[in-house]
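Why show two proteins at once? Because comparison is the fastest way to build intuition. When a single record is shown, students tend to memorize it. When two are placed side by side, the eye starts asking what differs. So, the first record is below.
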Amino acid sequence: MATDDQKGVRTAQFHISAALFEELGERLVSKPEIALAELIKNSYDADAKSCVVSINDQQITVSDNGHGLTEYEFLNNWMVVSSSDKSKLRSSRKFQRKMAGSKGVGRFSARFLGTILNVKTTARDPDDGKLKTLEAEFNWLEISKKSKISDIKIKYTVAPALRGTTTGMTLTIRSLRENIADLPVAKVRTDVLRLVNAAGGLEQPDFVTKRSVYGDPGFEVSFPDQEDEDEEVKNLARSILDRYVARARVSVSVDGKVDFRIYWKGQDEPIEKLRFTLGSLAKPFLARTLAADKGPKDHRGLPEALGGIDYLPLASELNSPVFVDIRFFPSRQGTFAELPVNGKKAMAWVKENSGIAVVDNGFSMPAYAEESSDWLAIEASKAVNERNWQSIFTPSFYPMDPTAKRNPRLNPMLALPRMPQLIGRVHVATQKVPADIKDDNNWLHPNMDREQLRDNGAYRLLWHLVRFTVEALAHFDRAFRLEDDHLKEEEARKNARQGLAAAIAQISASSEINDEHKQSMLRQLHEVEEQYSTAEKHEKNVRVSLELMSLMGVMAGFMTHEFDKTLESIHSAGAVIKRLAVDFPELSDDADIVLRNEKALAQQADYMRLYVGASRNITITPFKAKAQLNAAMRTLTSLADEHEIDIEIDVDSKLPGPAVPLAAYHGVAVNLVSNAMKALVARVGNKERKIKIYAATYESTHVLVCADNGIGIPDFLRDRIWDPLYTTTENSDDRNPLHSGLGLGLPLVRRVVDSVGGKIELLKKAPPGFVTAFRVVFPT
């Protein structure tokens, strides 16, 4: 219908078809357990202490002891489609429960189950204080025949409640749909309980369990016709959940402060405790930050460097508290030792109850509670043997060494738990976005059907947090398993040594073996014993050397701090000597030496300070190769001048550096040049001493070459130079830094180059005019 005003402008009005109820009932939900859960949520919102669900071939009954509906509430709330009542009242009237429903359409899910709905509700009349019972019946088939909602007339009765009647509501659904009547009741019961008894025996957060202020007695859903879970089974569940191999417990406040803890089997205290804010980690991945990137973009409009990362961009906050409790039960010997049931039965229980559900205000969201749900893409990662962390948080706390990434035994992502091995809950408390908030990107809130959270920046932030939690479990599980493997290897070596010694003793004492044959056997066994000992000693030395390499970083930081204090004293001393040289000319040269050395030390200290700072930041940022090589070489200028060594950098000033951390590039260059300087100082004769550094891009790689005309490396030592602790300069003149070494330089360089995905080699033939050359290939 349309109307005209005096100026001829027409006005149109919306007319809502009765078919809307079909959409609300049959499209809003997709499964019977979801439809039942929606009706049970209404009981929870009505401050019911219990809800009883009865299912048979003829009808489904959902009955509660909540506050019921008065006639006014029936007419102005129940009979109003998408009533805003729950949106305005975000807490229940008596126990102040967070309202599980918010859209005002959950009751229409009854239409999904059957075509007849009988509503019988008893409430206290606010006018006279007496209990009254209202009863109405909805025939959905007849309703759908009406052309307009205004044509629908629902008859109802109101009468004084019978003696002994208490407040509450009973919904009876009859004329069940064919697909509903044939469902196995036990499965429906299990699926419903999965949604409404969301804790599942795991820890619940304060924002769900804190009821003492309002005297909330709790809410229980029961299926009296199908009670088959006795106390013994419940006790078994508790026992299994406490027998985890690993557990992650994460608490996030509304303002984004995270308390992150990892617990391990047999240990009361957490093995990992982290505190951080979500906003600080999310900042580089906000929409405005990523949009400001001027580089090439992928199909999503995000920087190409993030092409392998899903669920971006992020929001800076969630506007909801979060609590995560995830427990890991690997299929391993000893996981369920000392349980009252065998391991196979316990593992079957874990598999049946596995999954990481999202619980909103105490109720599981169906999309995440389903057995087949892989919302964290864990099974997807396992299917393709994904080797890279998928959460953008994980590299910040557990950066993966590229060497480990390539090694299946060391890569922690390949130890990612499977979904059937995980039982977890992610509790959130969504709330209606305030009307004055135009952009809801920073708010966790459910979709219209409430089966899942809306895909926005807040949801993606939550995804990366929970995925990081599972990846952290993989990180520590791999570390502990490697440690266990090491202990087993040590035990195997010990047994092997004992077995070898026993064999030697037995052969030596044997009178049945002739002497010549015995001596031959013993000689071979002693050779094996010696080779075994040599190999063990070498492996131990390598392990110790790697630990020493790690200590060098600590030393560098300490030396930088101490240098600052020492340099002040040297500068003051040099100034005093300079003044004294006016009266004592013989001190003039000493004053120049002190001040010159002080300047050189200050330059090296400044560089060391920058290097230590850069080494803490493993982020890869663009840089120009020649500028950084010049900066690194300035630290060696004084030593080069002292020994008349010419260092030439043959690099195009516009050449971009490789895709490696800046500290790695500096460290490799300084180590190669300092090794070359040692070879030049050791050379006899007056021939020019020179080092040349080449760098260029070749076939999508960055190639760095360091060549010198020093004493060279004999062929028989070409392989030994990579061994940790091997050096040709030990026991030399310790007054000269170029006459000393720990044997850590080249092994450390190789380890760093490997860790960034590169390769280093000693060239068989150096460039013309040079004797030795090392070639490093970095990824671009």
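Second record. Ask yourself what differs from the first in the token line.
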Amino acid sequence: MKKLLILILICLGAWQYSLKNSETVEPNKSSAAVKFSNSAAIQTLSKAKEIAKPKSRFKCDGRQHCSQMRSYEEAKYFIRHCPNTKMDGDNDGIPCERQFNRYD
């Protein structure tokens, strides 16, 4: 245990030393990174990621049964994303078949 603690301390010291040296040797790289992160390309990329994120109208809130669902889409969301649901008795991926007349 004592050897492990000494090894961890040596590794932390070496890591701190390398961080200190990298900051003094390469200040231009960090300023270039800041310029790039503020560029229009990065801003456009972050906007594209936000647009591409699927927006869900539903969230897991503990409901598990078909009688608690308001729509077929909501039931599909729950069986795909929420734990312990009891809406697909035959495990065919189609929830609440009788309630929503879905027999695909």
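One difference worth noting in the second protein: Residues 2-25 form the longest helix (24 residues).
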